[in-house]
Amino acid sequence: MSTSTTTAPTSLSEAPRPGRLRRFSQLRAYTQTLSSSTSSGHRSRNSLSSRVPWLSPSSSGPESSTRPAGNSTAAEVLESDEPALSRYTSAPTAGAFHGLSIDTQTSSAESSRSTPPNEPASRSSNVMARLRSASAVQGRPPRTTALASTTTPDAPTSASETTSAATAISTSATTTTSPTPANQKATIRFFPHQDSLQSSRPSLPFTPIARTLPSDGSVIRVGRYSERDGVPVPNPSEPSDAPVGFKSKVVSRKHCEFSYKGGQWHIKDVGSSSGTFLNHMRLSQPNMVSRSYPIKDGDIVQLGIDFRGGEEMIFRCVRIRIECNRSWQQQPNEFNKNTESLIKNLGKGDGANYSGCRECSICLGSVLRPYQCLFMAACAHVWHYKCISRLLHSPEYPMFQCPNCRAFTDLSAEVDDTPDVLEAKTEDTTEGALPAGESTASHAETQPAAASPSVPATGEQQQGRTSLEPHTEEPDIATDVENLHLQDEDDRNSASGSGNEAEDDRNVDSAGPSTSNDDLARSATVSVTGFQPTQPVNVPLSRSPRLRADTPAETSDDNPLTPRNDMGPLAFDGRAGMRSE
Amino acid sequence: MASQKRIGKELSELTASPPEGISVELADEADLFKWKVFMNGPEGSPYEGGKFLVNLTLPNEYPFKPPTVSFGTKIYHPNVTNDEKGSMCLGMLRADEWKPSSKIAAVLEFARQLLLEPMPDDAVEGRIAEQYKSDRKRYDEIAREWTRKWAMSGQ
């Protein structure tokens, strides 16, 4: 989804254009502002970029997340982009979020404790659609600090209406601290492409290849595979400009080159005999060097032409689908952070806020119901496994193309279990950015064991109450499920404004099973009524940070020895405060 | 069936809050896969004032396969075939362009937008496209006349 914005904003911001282009941009604006899915806008963007080739360089140029710092031209490009971008981000985002906030507010206001488990489909999906477009806009890569600073003023303010103050703060924090251009490198990936349109012969199969340029001036040479080069590494973990080789006779030894200049990937035929084709256009005469052509995400590059009908594998041409300028998608951004929160909050009912990733784009149903199989692609889009399985087990397997953003995922890729440095860093800042340093402190003081899976009951309860939402300690599932129910308890209590005694009783009740083992805890919680999302949308989220921020009295609550009975009224107060704002 | 569930959802969504100038109903109550869409000619286009019947057919594999859109009302438009089929050429409905996450609402919006701004470079009726590009006035005239003749007869 967020991909759809990669080119869209830029082209939108190019103000008046004649004829078709103007129409396209109008159309795009039109479809995007409508509550229909952003995919329509996406689609028109696609056609725009595919049919108007001269637009593509400019549209994909500024979005290169991979530009190294200190590149003066890059900085210039960015600066010139900035006003346009900010213009874009401010207007529709604010609009979308505004609409959203109204929706959610009304819904939370009018939804009593007995909101039906399924919100009226039309409304919720409207919210969703808007959210999606909003998050699509916001999900723009925080490519540089400059851009981040332009987006942040918009993002948190509008977001704070819908989510909570603390979430907004954490978003802004992560936005500003997210990777600077310094640690971003130009990345390109090659995927095998089978031409589906003409019933043409299959092209040469190859494993997907990824390259990250070690330096700005490096060039990726592509040619025929040769034993002399040694066994090629398809996906080196380190930045590499190792040549890419294909085992086909129609590929010349020196066939073409990929380079990265001024924030834009280029391809150049270096005198191949059977030609390099960019989107079916031959770049140069046989054995002639071509000029550099800009390429963009989704372009198809064909090396050579089938020889002898391509019956033998060795005579098949190579068709490559290019994936570039997508590295922002592989870094923390608004959208995949939302998805992360979705995963962490899964099973908490509609209480948590997922900003746009709660809908399966195949069945348009919610992915939030607990106990169903989900599939998440590398681009952080989520579907029901059942819905998406058809696209997973396609003839293209192990390649999977996201039906939302068209990003390719290699399903056979090795599991990446390296510790995520970036993520840890941003999480730190998230924690630090929260106004309540006290909550962290209190965690440290009163529940040192909170991070470990075997938490004492009270500790867990506190965790459920105080650090509901950014689970910095990565609790295990059982803890999550427990949190959910404890939280529901709180909600019910606070929503009803019931007395302390009742609440105390319930807390004791719910704390009881959680002391035992995980299974028990889970089964115990299943029966809790809160499992049907009875609480109003967004409320728990907006409440928890408020508690952390504004109620220092809570520290006493963290003490395992004190009874936990002053939580309800406080929670109620905090939430009321949030709402009236 | 999964597709029925989704279609039902989209249908109820579209009937509950139809996009501007568009109303949908099932051609046959028992068949979720055939829709009748009534599209009002957008303001400012030569189709203004007309009410066009658009037949939307959903494949069994929906949403993995795109729906097909055809005009049941005769219309003078570069992107709609000028025969009894009235097939409409929508880029987003091409098999390789279609994405399951696209919704029918978006398709209809797109179709209506096409009434407002035809795409002569993507035309199925080359002659009309040529005229649209070279003699816009004449095109407007004929389109308006056709609209009067075919799309307003019921009123």
From TrEMBL, chain A:
Q: Does the keyword Flavoprotein belong to this entry?
A: no
Residue ranges, compositional bias (Low complexity) = 1-13, 35-68, 141-182
Q: Tell me if Metal-binding is a UniProt keyword of this record.
A: yes
**UniProt-listed Gene3D superfamilies:** 2.60.200.20, Zinc/RING finger domain, C3HC4 (zinc finger) (3.30.40.10)
A Pfam family: FHA
Which GO MF term does the entry hold, naming one?
zinc ion binding
Q: Where is the FHA domain?
A: 220-283
Q: Pull one GO CC term from this UniProt entry.
A: ubiquitin ligase complex
Q: Which keywords describe this protein according to UniProt? A: Metal-binding, Transferase, Ubl conjugation pathway, Zinc, Zinc-finger
Question: In its UniProt record, which GO terms are filed under biological process?
Answer: protein ubiquitination; ubiquitin-dependent protein catabolic process
InterPro entries referenced in this protein's UniProt entry, alphabetically: FHA_dom, SMAD_FHA_dom_sf, Znf_RING, Znf_RING/FYVE/PHD
In its UniProt entry, what is this protein called? Answer: E3 ubiquitin-protein ligase DMA2
Instruction: Say which species the protein is native to.
Output: Penicillium diatomitis
Q: What is the lineage of its organism?
A: Eukaryota, Fungi, Dikarya, Ascomycota, Pezizomycotina
Automatic annotation (TrEMBL), chain B:
Q: Which domain of life is it from?
A: Eukaryota
Instruction: Outline the extent of the UBC core domain.
Output: 2-152
Q: Which GO terms describe its molecular function?
A: ATP binding; ubiquitin conjugating enzyme activity
Which Gene3D superfamilies does this entry report, sorted A to Z?
Ubiquitin Conjugating Enzyme
Its top-level enzyme class, in one word, is transferase
Q: Which UniProt keywords apply?
A: ATP-binding, Nucleotide-binding, Transferase, Ubl conjugation pathway
Q: Which PROSITE patterns match?
A: UBC_2
Enzyme Commission numbers on file: 2.3.2.23
Q: Which Pfam families match?
A: UQ_con (PF00179)
For this entry, the protein name equals: E2 ubiquitin-conjugating enzyme
* Biological classification of the source: Eukaryota, Fungi, Dikarya, Ascomycota, Pezizomycotina
